[in-house]
TrEMBL record:
Belongs to the bacterial solute-binding protein ModA family. Its main location: membrane. This is Molybdate-binding protein ModA. Keywords: Cell membrane, Membrane, Metal-binding, Molybdenum, Signal, Transport, Tungsten. CDD domains: PBP2_ModA_like_1. One of its GO terms (biological process) is molybdate ion transport. Molybdate binds at residues 49, 77, 180, 198. The lineage of its organism: Bacteria, Bacillati, Actinomycetota, Actinomycetes, Propionibacteriales. Involved in the transport of molybdenum into the cell. Part of the binding-protein-dependent transport system ModABCD. Pfam families: SBP_bac_11 (PF13531). GO terms for molecular function: metal ion binding; molybdate ion binding. It comes from Aeromicrobium endophyticum.
Amino acid sequence: MRSIVVSAASILLLATTTACGTSDDNGSDDAATSSAPQDTSITVFAAASLKSSFTELGSAFEKANPGVTVTFNFAGSSDLVAQIQQGAPADVFASADTTNMDKATADDLVAGSPTDVATNTLEIATPPGNPAGVDSIDDLADPDVKVVLCAPEVPCGAAAAGVEKAAGISISPVSEEQSVTDVLGKVVSGEADAGLVYVTDVKAAGDKVRGVTFPESSRVVNTYPIAALTGSKHPDVAKAFADFVAGDQGQAVLAAAGFGAP
């Protein structure tokens, strides 16, 4: 979990200072003004695949308007929603699929309606040089190829099951992980010949892995929603952060990381 100080000119209106931002009813990066105290702190639970993008967004938010502390908890979406359901303190939830957000909504844990902010698809990651010679999704069904997948309850695992069905194959993984970053880590370390991760993970990994695209991936698209939570002690700040991610700057950062439009 990483803490960064981020800004909120758009969410703070202090009696002793001049406001630094404006609100915009049309969904710009400036969110609605609130009377939150300057030392407000919120916790954002976000899917592991969002770590790089959300870290960058936090830094940008910090540079623009210092004042609010945001603590990020990055993990698999299924783990995150379970923690929220069990009462873990959280102000914002960003999921790698709608299924886990629906669980939070069904338990009345979501304030208002979630906003879709991105989409993502799967890509095969192999170690540099691709020693097992993986060139297609079909190669992952070869019992001699050590494949790592996300566990079925994790969004990337559900997506993997979807592409297996689309390709008409059955993969027998050597391990199933609780987050996509764990799958990527086993490929990077050489413990696996291949792993099914998101396009964004392959891009972020750079030359640590080789990406192998496959046409069946387009048939299983994960949608990423974000929402403020009803348990937040600072609902205006929580909503403002969610609005920032959904706004122009947030969308630009997500697109640069390889995410698709919502």
